[in-house]
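User:
I study polymers; will you set down one protein's sequence and backbone structure tokens?

Assistant:
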Amino acid sequence: MSPTDSVHTLTELARWSFSGTALAVLGHPVEHSLSPAMHNAALAGMARDQGRFASWRYYKFDVPPAELPAALDLFHQRGFCGLNLTVPHKIIAFDRVAEVDPAARPIGAVNTVLRLDHGWRGYNTDGYGLAQGLREELGADLKEAHVILLGAGGAARAAAVECLQRHCASLWIANRTAARLDALLTALQPIAGNVPLHGFAPSSPPAGLPTGALVINATAAGLRAEDPSPLDLTRLPRPAGVYETIYNPPETPLLRQAATLGVPHANGLSMLVHQGAKSLEHWTGVPAERTAPVMMRAVRAGLAASV
């Protein structure tokens, strides 16, 4: 196994020695991450056009959440150019970076950090990945679209902010826990502007839901084979499309129901790729549109090899 495929630890980071430019994803666990495969494939392609990228490599590190603050300092000391962060590191890092991109502030989480002389600058590329995935897979644009969003956690908040910042026509958020839903709606209200913002329980969809909405699942329901669908699509006016932020397994109960009903649908593989390509753009300046196709091929190959 190559160093870029291996899972590294903070103990190894303490004695880290690499003469090139290093990038990494931090998670706990992180063994399953496909980020090294897709980023290193993109870097290899970039190196063929620009020799300066020949010494760039992307690694994965297992970092327990409690150790993230100290880890961020250590990665900076070791000269890493940039990092990707998985849940729950995205929220922890938000208050630990020197600067936060204005677009990421309403989300309260960063999934990408760029090295500055005095610390890290944080970005959140999840919303960009979602918007590009919807456009690529379903031909859908968030601007002026009615959106029904499932979930009220961190992933849902990133999706909701992206919908509002792109001026969707209306945003309806469904979540089982009323208190968590109310907290999200309150947090979103200052940036909603004139966009109608509503909440409801998935077990009792209201009568006023729009026809032709985009349904986006930002819950974890569907990660396991025994998971129920987060929402019964037959209780909604017919949607224009269903997008699942989960990519593994490739078909969830929600997507199976969408297929049965003949509703256009897609899983979150495209979101994974496009958020990664945007991270790489922040680190290298190479436009995400150029690297996304290479990253998609690498991710598909990685998933096929894991079956």
Observations:
- Residues 245 and 268 are 4 Å apart (CA to CA).
